[in-house]
Amino acid sequence: MSEAEARPVKTRYDVTLPFGIGVPAWPGEPMPVITRLADMDKGDDCTVTRLDFAVHYATHLDAPLHFVKGGGDVAGLALDVLMGPCQLVRIDNEIDAIGPEAFEIAPGCTRLLVKTRNSALWDDPAHAFHRDFTAFTPEGAQWLVDRGIRLVGIDYLSVQRFYDSEPATHRILLGAGVIAVEGLDLRAVEPGEYHLTCLPLRLVGADGSPCRVVLDGPASTRQKDRRQDTSEQP
Amino acid sequence: MSEAEARPVKTRYDVTLPFGIGVPAWPGEPMPVITRLADMDKGDDCTVTRLDFAVHYATHLDAPLHFVKGGGDVAGLALDVLMGPCQLVRIDNEIDAIGPEAFEIAPGCTRLLVKTRNSALWDDPAHAFHRDFTAFTPEGAQWLVDRGIRLVGIDYLSVQRFYDSEPATHRILLGAGVIAVEGLDLRAVEPGEYHLTCLPLRLVGADGSPCRVVLDGPASTRQKDRRQDTSEQP
Q1: ipTM for this model
Q2: For residues B76 and B63, is the Cβ–Cβ distance under 8 A?
Q3: Domain assignment of residue B211, given as a range
Q4: For an engineered disulfide with B74, which of A185, B8, B27, B203 has Cβ 3.0 to 4.6 Å away?
Q5: Do the Cβ atoms of B108 and A1 come within 8 Å?
Q6: pTM for this structure?
Q7: What's the CATH code of the domain at A164?
């Protein structure tokens, strides 16, 4: 048995929105169109789905190319940033603009997910697009960059507020090479430390991609350490 | 630092084919169409890609629904099968039909990837679709099911040979709930034990999905065990 199987993963959370249940598109972008190229129910040998969609739909990530001319594409994003330890923080429901020092970032943290009042919107996944979601101010984005964050995720469809006149938050994050993960469903997850697995498609030349996002944890390390401590006692 | 970060992962392999470089489509299915809904190079505020494709393109997986009427969809596939230890075996280049007992399956193995002579085809990723690829016979598929395999991956675009008159290999695997992963690029990976992460999109009602597939290893466990053995010597 490998170490991975022996590792006492306590709980695994799929924090990806299901695709195909009416999650709203970004205003001005089309809803995905899901059709069948072949269908066993119509007498074909097999069933084959065709998917036509904008890559920033539902749970997805942004590559630099989304807001940076000549920026990096999705295929170029580093797996070592997309997979690894992450911190999940809860933002108070009163906060709708996340600025600098809005919460404490653990030392060494490079992957950060924020759970806000937005999460409640996913109780009705097919709601009409909600413009007043909580997101980062440009100053909050710069604070993340200055603190060494390489990946930031949020529980609605953008890291940036809808009514901002300039896309400064996006430009600051993507310009610094920070991966922005948007449209997470964090309802079932409590604040703490997790192991993040955030895998987009390997899209060459694309500015974004839907992704599957999984959290393992929390605190499997501490649990294991505790068990080891106990066994070492006389 | 979490246990995951402390784990001495030796090497990480992205065994996913890049999407958008001309990988051939299955005969009769369309090539993906990748366009821009918005483009900074044309004066837009940001760049937004649109993707129109059949879900069995390039590196992808099959859910039961692909060949089983009323079978399970992609969204219903278990993450605990898609993530975990796996065995990678090398099939001799002379073999073009993988039958029962074609290789040794390690005790307890539930995830299996086979590297065949197909792998060399990816040296030219935009080659014309190759019909004479190596894949499993129906008897080989039944052997995998009987041995408790839950996920099987192969290095060309189907687990089943192209000229089979009936889709028996698919029906046996998918009928037993085995996840079939197709279109892996295993060229850089040697036989051995790895930790597999194979994440499709969370597509509701879909028979397949492109997926991102990552292998970690090999043998980080053995390395760790060896180190521990050393430290325990007097």
Answers
A1: 0.90
A2: yes
A3: 3-24+54-232
A4: B203
A5: yes
A6: 0.91
A7: 3.50.30.50
